[in-house]
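User: Could you check the structure of this?
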Amino acid sequence: MSFDHAQFKRLERKGYNRIGARYLAAAGSRGELAQALLAAAELAPGQRVLDLASGPGQLARAAQQEVSATGLAVASDISEGQLACCPDLARVAADGEALPFPAASFERVLCGLGLMFFPDEHAALKEMRRVLRPGGRLVLSVWGRAEEVPLVDAALACMRRLLPPPKVARPSIFRFGDPGELDRRLASADFCDRDIRPCRFTVDFADAAAYWQGFLDLAGGAAESLSRLPPEKQRELALAVADELAPHAVAGGYRLAATVLIASARPV
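Assistant: Sure, the predicted structure tokens are below.
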């Protein structure tokens, strides 16, 4: 299947616009991850911070508190619908592979669980490097290996089991889950002082329906594609995912784990 970058971006943008404020509510389950990323960023008052793939601006809002009124945190995302959820922040709708900011504009660039969704991740990393000031720092997070992220892979496995291959090819969201591979990607984009560490967390769900809805509320382009299925197929998926969730059953529902890699690096 050939890969169409532009079509992929249109689908992701439409999907995240569709999710809107639901994403903000669902993303609260990843609070530990956000705290770990912010700790790695070592923010300080007066800094200028760019948060890429910002969604509804959770990281950007926390960053603004850290840099105080003397600094600035800018939320940037391809989805205007997501940015509409953070009207209190500086916001710029933009493609992360072609940023509209001058070179050396920021002391920090953050990207929480976003690099996997850039079709040309090398171009995105080059742009992140370009807008960083000398001595600045990039801090990003990516999903670990698929087997380390049942929180997401359970839903994807159910989709693979019940649906034909997608018409629009999607890059694997786990493709940077190997620390060595992520390190190579950062090095190829001229980042040095690279540090990559795992961050593990769990999320509890009362039942399979809550898990499936939580997935849909965070899934962007995948959720957009699923919304186009016949209603009966959508209901079938929502029920069938219980098979994938069975190994994660606990008293009162399900507990699913996730491993995320948090990387910190400086421009050469």
